[in-house]
Amino acid sequence: MKKQRCSEKINLFDLLSEEIVFIILDCLNTNPFDKKSFSLVCKSFYITESKHRKKLKPLRQEHLPAVLIRYSNTTHLDLSLCPRINDHSLFAISKITSFTLQSIDLSRSWGFSSSGLLSLTLSCKNLKEIDISNAVSLKDAGAAALAEAKNLEKLWMGRCKMVTDMGVGCIAVGCKNLKLISLKWCLGVGDLGVGLIAVKCKEIRSLDLSYLPITNKCLPSILKLQHLEDLILEGCFGIDDCSLAALKHGCKSLKALDMSSCQNISHLGLSSLTSSIGGLQQLTLAHGSPVTLSIANGLKKLSMLQSIKLDGSVVTRAGLKAIGDWCVSLKELSLSKCDGVTDEGLSYVATKHRDLRKLDITCCRKISDVSITHVTSSCTGLTSLRMESCTLVPREAFVLIGQRCRFLEELDLTDNEIDDEGLKSISRCSKLSVLKLGICLNITGEGLAHVGMCCSKLKELDLYRFVTCKMQVCFCFSVSFLFVNYQSKL
């Protein structure tokens, strides 16, 4: 009896110590090499780290079975670096991880067929997420195999061009717990397939129908989804003002709507839109109709709107001023490559929306230091500023960014006139994690040294076509984990 009690105490101690080690391993997620170093300390650490790891991203297909046997508690398997995954590989995965696997990424893999998918979905009963994007040869038989994953909640099948309404119908009938499905570029899927998804899968939260040949026939069924929050209709050329009239009948839960490249939508359609979905928080109208006063006024009813993206659209001065007059306080505004953005319009918006956190003015070539002055003085809480190729902004204006916008985490200054004085000022942004300085021909190692010494959280640095030697760049930075995109000027 004494020996039994002693062994029970030892087992309890082992369990407690293992839990403590797991807590330590949870803190080693910032650097991917830390866990590898931990596992090489001793055999005990090697075994413990194997039990703890849940996510795998193998580099080579031939070692896959051995890796899965070692990491027996794998729940997420990312095979995006193994392009030649075939049915034999899927058979091995389904056999080894049948009780643990919950998510698998096959978005860059090819070589498997419906047989491999069927073995995976039949064996791995706990599968909740599958990504088979870019499986261009997959047909309805493959879609029917996916339908066997009864607990599936998220499915990405973008560019599965051979799948038709019949295959999507099988998924709709078999996977009734779906909360997210992406059918982007599934050109064989039309109103019938989308309608079946809407009718059978009542739990849908996110629906991506980009570039599908759908019309207003399936919209009423979609808008009856009580939990739908994110709807993407990018490039749906069959959607017009008459189609949006159906929005008057519901979809109160919708929070994000993407209608990029929908050329047949005018201010009349948007008026129908705003009259029914007042809870919308994110709206994307990129590459669409010109943003005129009529369109801007039609969006005033969206009292909870926080983000609007107008990339690639023509923005009139009256339209931009109308956006500034909205009663809502925008958090994100994207005007990337928008023709018509001037100092007058941008300055007006900046002074009205002082709570902006993200601003994208990429390739707005008509703005100058006047806009930067107003933006930096009004929107001091900016965390992201993208202003690539704003060629009229003089080098003196970049000093204001560092002086006034201290909370910046992302800054894109590609192809601008910034110099070392501007970099010294920007080095005050201690939270900066992404900095892009490609084709900035006026900077040297002296300015980069200030950034390297002060911006300790920097993780991504773009020095494309930097004119100074590489050794000078290396000595400028003391950060522990930094991705540098570098190419010397020829």
UniProtKB/TrEMBL annotation:
Gene Ontology biological process: SCF-dependent proteasomal ubiquitin-dependent protein catabolic process
Domain of life assignment: Eukaryota
InterPro entries found in the cross-reference section: FBXL15_LRR, Leu-rich_rpt_Cys-con_subtyp, LRR_dom_sf
Coiled coil: none
Listed GO CC annotations: SCF ubiquitin ligase complex
Classification via Pfam families: DUF7885 (PF25372)
UniProt cross-references to SMART domains, sorted A to Z: LRR_CC (SM00367)
F-box/LRR-repeat protein 15-like leucin rich repeat domain ranges (all copies): 122-267, 295-463
Name assigned to this protein: F-box/LRR-repeat protein 15-like leucin rich repeat domain-containing protein
